[in-house]
Amino acid sequence: MRAAIFGAALDDVALMLDLVRASSRLTHSDPKAELGAIAVALAAKHSRDRGTVDANLWLDDVVGAVGEGGTGLDGGAELIELLRRAVRSHGAAETTQAFAESLGLDRGVSGYTYHTVPVAIHAWLSHPTDFRRAVMSIIECGGDADTTAAIVGGIVGAGVGPGGIPTEWLQGIWEWPRSVGWMQRLGATLADSLDGTGPVKSPTVNPAAVLLRNQLFLFLVLVHGFRRLAPPYG
Q1: Dihedral Cα 42, 48, 54, 55, nearest 10 deg
Q2: Are 119 and 11 in a shared domain?
Q3: Are 218 and 197 within one domain?
Q4: Contact at 8 Å (CB) between 1 and 157?
Q5: pLDDT at 174
Q6: Same domain (yes/no): 153, 184
Q7: pLDDT single digits (tens) 125-136
Q8: How many angstroms separate the first and last alpha carbons of the chain?
Q9: Are residues 112 and 210 in the same domain?
Q10: How far from 13 is each of 25, 38, 92, 109, 160, CA to CA, in Å?
Q11: Are 38 and 81 in contact (CB under 8 A)?
Q12: 141 contacts: CB under 8 Å, gap ≥ 6
């Protein structure tokens, strides 16, 4: 979910790849997660740089970054084959849901990288300039939809910009104490930091408000979890 930010923000591909790898290793020890993150970052960069998406050109970039010569986790062969299947499926005008089902994900897309990334890429290729349709198409696949929708939104959003995001979606964000305005200031700070002219200061947020928000969120999660233990189950 974090990887698209690097592709949207950075022109230096080598630096971008280094940061993607470092970011991935903070939370994921499986090298597959790192390879998937690289594919997502390169998709966001391709989306940002090109008015018309060229799936094969993007795939060539991924092959160059992760390789495909080995069968081990570091070889990238398995991921590349899955991405090729996504490109072929898109070329055959299959829906994203049909592609997910072809991978055996008819009951929803899991959080496993080699499930999440190929289906997210398919949604991007199918709707590269339609933020609403791209995100909805991945949500309709079910499963770990918050993760998959965030990935697709990051990739497509890198191309369409804030003007391409449905207004009612932006107005409906409730992430108190962080507002949409705060997020925009954070993005502007990131952009300012890339010119290398000097240190920048990120927008602040009240730590007491964050603590209160997290306590409320924990309460809701616990209530939801215990509710699932009672009938009707599920």
Answers
A1: 40
A2: yes
A3: yes
A4: no
A5: 85
A6: no
A7: 999 999 999 999
A8: 27
A9: no
A10: 18, 10, 31, 29, 21
A11: no
A12: 96, 97, 100, 105, 108, 109, 119, 148
Please report the pLDDT score of residue 70 as a whole number: 45
Structural domain of residue 206, as residue ranges? Answer: 180-227
Does one domain contain both 88 and 12?
A: yes
Tokens 């007491």, located at residue = 208
With bands split at pLDDT 50, 70 and 90, how would you rate the model's confidence at 234? low
Q: What is the pLDDT of residues 16-49, one digit of tens each?
A: 999 999 999 999 888 899 999 999 999 999 999 9
Output the six-digit token pair for 231: 């009938």
Residue at 206: amino acid letter? N
Q: Report the distance separating Cα 173 and Cα 226, nearest Å.
A: 26
Task: Indicate whether 62 and 27 sit together in one domain.
Answer: yes
Q: Is residue 95 scored above 90 in pLDDT?
A: yes
Q: How does residue 71 score in pLDDT terms, banded at 50, 70 and 90? A: very low
